[in-house]
Amino acid sequence: MVPIGGQTGLVDGTVFDEPHVAISTERLRSLTEPDVLNARIRVGAGLTIGEVHASCPNGWTFAVDFGARESATVGGAIATNAGGLRVMRHGTMRRNVVGVEAVLADGSIVDDMRGLDKDNTGYDITQLMAGSEGTLAIITAAQLKLVPAPKNLCTALLSFASRDDAISALPPLQARLPDIEVAELMLREGLDLVSTHLRRTNPLPPDGNAGLLIEVPGFPETLAAASEELPGLIDAAVASSLSDRRNLFAWRESHTEAIKAQGSSIKLDLSLPRSMIGSTLDAVDRLVAAEEGATAITYGHLGDSSLHVSILGVPDESAPHLESLVLELVAAVGGSLSAEHGIGRKRASQLSLRRSQTEISIMKAVKAGLDEHGLLNPGVIFSI
Ligand code: MLT
Ligand code: ZN
Fold it and tell me: For the chain, what is the radius of gyration of the CA atoms?
């Protein structure tokens, strides 16, 4: 049984060659009046993340947000513990889901929709379901957390002379602006691709090689004062209207499709200790440079130290070797081979690069305890 949400995942969590029963949650569209007093919204698993945002009452919002918001469903986003653009401030789905209703492999229903912030009565079933990638149960509804919507968001693209300048700018910016919600890294090569794809001029100045998309509650003057004297800062484009803001976000959110338009690539979704980002990306660049015709397009969530690296132009026969070299490098510096996209079927054989045998045994014991016949999403997380 393969549970299907919006099918926006990138690790083959819903793609299965073997004969199977696909179970779509798209008709689970219940939506109750948002509960402002308790700051909760109760929704069916089939609503999209965009629909949840649109259902939030005035002054409140749901904090998880990402480019695929109009197709990705609540059930899928919980099952994959989706991250996205605001993790640095609000955490991943795990921090924003406070209850689930789910159907187990034996058909029983677990209703953990109580939704208290604190409830230390044994294991946390909702959190067990979050990130389980459809292997433990099929999520049918959820109780989500609402947060106060920030007032006067200031959105800007800061351009830097180099990637290292952009990476080093974040800690001082955060120290001055503790409420930064978004800090997304984009580099010249990626913005060139997006610029061709969107038929717009690259927003970086000619001597700019890296951009930081920043969003922070406050006014442009606050951001200007905080970014003064950042080494390597060469330009700042501040959104002065909603459409400016959308345009700035489009540069970042169009990376996926612009890269896809180039054909097949090695798509990596890496999480790194912040202190290791610069040196690891340098090492990745060296590995990629050794492969003739290959280019790395790096972009993503600098704010929570997770980056997407897509390597283009690698012949199919050398792709697995190059991918392993990069993943081994990432594992060696304490990084993760899946920051936010999950393991799915695509990375199941690589799980032990990140998790110990003891951890994998614990996970397998949980799986066997809840789904003894292995009915739910076989081959996901653990290879068959
Ligand atoms: C993103 O951050 O844009 C998504 O995680 C998808 C991607 O890998 O491009
Ligand atoms: Zn991402």
Answer: 21
**DSSP-assigned letters across all residues of 213-224:** EEEEES-HHHHH
Q: What is the pLDDT of residues 65-90, one digit of tens each?
A: 999 999 999 999 999 999 999 999 99
- Residue 42: count other Cβ atoms within 10 Å of its Cβ: 18
Residue 256 CB less than 6 A away from ligand 1 = yes
Give the dihedral sign, CA 243/248/253/255. positive
Rounded distance, CA 265 to CA 93, Å? 27
Which residue minimizes the CA distance to atom 5 of ligand 1? 84
255 Cβ inside 6 Å of ligand 1 = yes
Q: Which stretches within 207-356 are classed as H helix?
A: 220-227, 242-253, 255-260, 277-289, 319-332
Site to probe by mutation for ligand 1, drawn from 66, 193, 256 as the one with most ligand atoms within 8 Å of Cβ, is 256
C-alpha of residue 51 to centroid of ligand 2, in Å: 20
Query: pLDDT tens, 159-200?
Result: 999 999 999 999 999 999 999 999 999 999 999 999 999 999
Which tens digits make up the pLDDT trace of 251-290?
999 999 999 999 999 999 999 999 999 999 999 999 999 9
Distance 308 CA to ligand 1 centre (A): 7
